[in-house]
Amino acid sequence: MIAKQLKAISNICYILGMACAILLYTQNTFGISSAIRIGFYVFGGTGLLLSLLQFRFIPEDKWEDFNLLFWIGSLVIFIGFVVQTLHLKYATYILIAGFAITGFSFFVNPFRKDKDEEDELLDN
Fold first, then answer.
1. What are the tens digits of pLDDT across the range 56-85?
2. Residue 4: per-residue pLDDT
3. How far is Cα 74 from Cα 98, in angstroms, rounded to an integer?
4. Which DSSP string do the residues of the chain spell out, in sequence order?
5. Residue 107: CB partners within 8 Å, gap ≥ 6?
6. Which of 45, 63, 67, 91 is close enough to 111 for a disulfide, judged by CB 3.0 to 4.6 Å?
7. Which of 37, 35, 36, 42 is nearest to 14 (CA)?
């Protein structure tokens, strides 16, 4: 119950954060760029934190679905976008590192069980 509510709130925050990010990067801020930038920081950060908190309420048998490396990569990407919106140096390198971690997470999941058990069923 709590996990579903956290997921719903997290998704809403992600959508609002992405809307603010799109407005910032297309420079369609309608004269309120500072408010849109703050919205991007608040909604994006809240979405990330809620997605991590939702991990706490996942039963142990469903941990395979959550990948901590993906979350860490998403956090690094968010930090890279924040650095880029502040026009600081090295934003590109932070973004590349975040995308690399996120891409690597599709191949490695520390909570995934061995697939050998499932392969045996298919071999019969």
1. 666 665 555 567 788 888 889 999 989 988
2. 78
3. 6
4. -HHHHHHHHHHHHHHHHHHHHHHHHTT--TT-HHHHHHHHHHHHHHHHHHHHHHHHTS-GGGGGG--HHHHHHHHHHHHHHHHHHTT-TTHHHHHHHHHHHHHHHTT--TTPPPTHHHHHHHH-
5. none
6. 63
7. 42
Q: What's phi and psi for 92, nearest 5 deg?
A: -65, -40
74: nearest Cα among 53, 111, 44, 54: 44
Residue labelled with tokens 């026009």? 87
At residue 58, what is the residue type? I
Give every residue of the chain whose pLDDT is below 50, as ranges.
Answer: none
Place of tokens 């975040």: 98
Query: Domain locations in the chain?
Result: 1-57, 63-124
**Do 13 and 50 touch, CB atoms closer than 8 A?**
yes
